[in-house]
Every structure is written in C-alpha cells, then in structure tokens.
What we know:
- By secondary structure, the protein is an alpha/beta fold.
- It has helices at 2-22, 61-64, 81-92, 98-113, 129-135, 139-151, 173-180, 208-219; strands at residues 72-78, 121-124, 159-161, 184-186, 197-204, 225-232.
- Strand 5, helix 8 (208-219) and strand 6 (225-232) form a beta-alpha-beta unit.
- The longest helix is centred in the first third of the chain and has 21 residues, at 2-22.
Amino acid sequence: MALLSSSLRFARQWGECALSLAFPWAESMAAEPVRIEAPFCRQCGYPYPALEGHESTFVCAHCAERAWHFQWARSGYHTEGQVLDAIIGFKYRDEYYQQGRLVQWLTETFDHHARPGEWHALVPVPLYHRRHRERGFNQAREMARGLAAKRKIPVLDCLYRYRETVSQTKLERNARWENMSGAFQMKRGFDVGGRNLLVIDDVFTTGATVNACAQALAQAGAGQLAVLTVARS
Length: 233
C-alpha cells in the first residue's frame, strides 16, 4: 500500500511538472484575482474598504467576541474569480497544475505579511484520514510544501484530525465553531515548545478550523502562532 501510494504521488507530481512546463496554469475565464488590501482587522485580516485611509489597528466585532489562539491571520485574495476557480479545481477536479498558482499566491501573501518574522516551521491544516484517502492528497500540505521550497522554512506535519467533522461549507458561523471544537491533536513524537509556527490553509472563512489547530499547538507549548491562507471569504 505504501509503495502504491508513493507511485501515485510520483505520477501526480510528474504530471504537474509536465503541465507546468506546457503552461504555468490553464487559462481561466473567471475574473482576475482581487487582492485584499488594508484596512483590515488586525486579528483575522477581514477587509473593511469603507475605512480606507485608516490604519489596520482595529479589531472587528467578530473577533472581539471570540477566544483566538493565534496572534493574527492574513489572506492574500478574496475567494472569488480565478482564485476560487483554482481552489475548487485543485481540491475537487483533479486540476493538479493549479498547485503552482496557489503556491505563488501563498508566497506573495507570506512576503507581504509574514516575511519579517522568525518562523521555525509551517504547519498545514490536516484532513481526516478518510477524506485524505478519497482526495489522494492534502491541499494545505501541498501548498505548505511549495512555500517551504521557496522560502526555506520546513513543513512540520505535527497535527492530526482527531475526529471526522461535518463539512464546514454546510454550516453557519456558530455551528462551524462547535463543529471544530477539539477536532485536532498533536501527533506523538513532536515537540513544538517555544517554536514560532505559521498555520497554513487554502481559505479562511470564520477561522474555526485554523483556530482549532492553533489551540492544539498552543496547548503543546508553541511560541508565536499565526495563520496564512491564500484566500478570505
């Protein structure tokens, strides 16, 4: 089984390289990516264009009523147009060539928001093992690997999804938080004590998933914790 999994992973990666050489990414009729610009909430990164001209020193109402386990979260783009098309294509339509595009956007987001910091590792949000088998890969880990290669920061695959949860896309805001409570735990053999970690995912919606990951890391004694995603809903 391990040999088969390795062979499939090699075949997929070879295919990605071949597609990337032929064309960096497929042409899309969707709208051009829309970058998230300041002003935005200093905690979750949600943009507030009506406050243009003000610095991002405020905390939005959503964040004020939540117990966050990370210092800040930043996303590069709005979840629409080509960005949404790339995320859905990569995750659900076997469009593996979209990885290069997503990694590019994630790297731009890292450079804009996180590069001045001292980060010891990137921690991808894990999938439940059944969903991982069905999809064949974890999109967060693939994007983290791409960023790691570009910015020379190791990937620390130290979390696992303790229990299967209902898809977050089917739930309202408060239900998402209840759904993710206690969903992640540390794997045995990992020591994150005092380490500054960036949690990596594709999309930040309510923050319930990444916050549950940050909680597990914080309980294990991690140092500074922040979140980086390609897109923000």
